Amino acid sequence: MAPVLLGCQLLALLWCLWLRGEVQRLEKSGMTPPPWWTQLRWAVFADAAIVGLLFIMVLMDYGMSASSLLGSIWWSHEVLQSWRWLLWLARGLDVLAVLLATAWLLRVCRQRQLLDAELQYVLVLVGALLAVCAWFSPGLGTVSLIAAGALMAGRWRIALLCALAALSFLGHFYYVL
Q: Which of 9, 127, 153, 177 could form a disulfide with 19 if both were Cys (CB 3.0 to 4.6 A apart)?
């Protein structure tokens, strides 16, 4: 499942980049005729796709337990050991994604002067704890990237879905323990 998780992280990162330039694209939509990439329907499509990605991530989290069990039955020990580097890469990228999302959120909050010093420390602490949890719960990095993008763009419903997905990931990790 590691290649799928890496693809999901890439899609989440592309969505965050899409959101970064959204204001400029919407300003261009007032032109006559507007360029095809500035139309509102593309923003709606991108948001719907990212919500679908969140649901896929949650379903995949519950499916990974069964797939790891079946994988250990069907694959030989040598084959599993030769692909172990991909697992370590996916875990490391999940941790990096959480740290990147935390740093991006902290930077934007400082620029917009949304948080005082105490709340910035809380944000850093929560980001560090989520980074530790992301090592054990694959997919949490992708959810944190989507949550940071949603918070910065004012997509509160998507941010709420990210919080529910993260609780699901952490709850499933507790259940696996």
A: 153
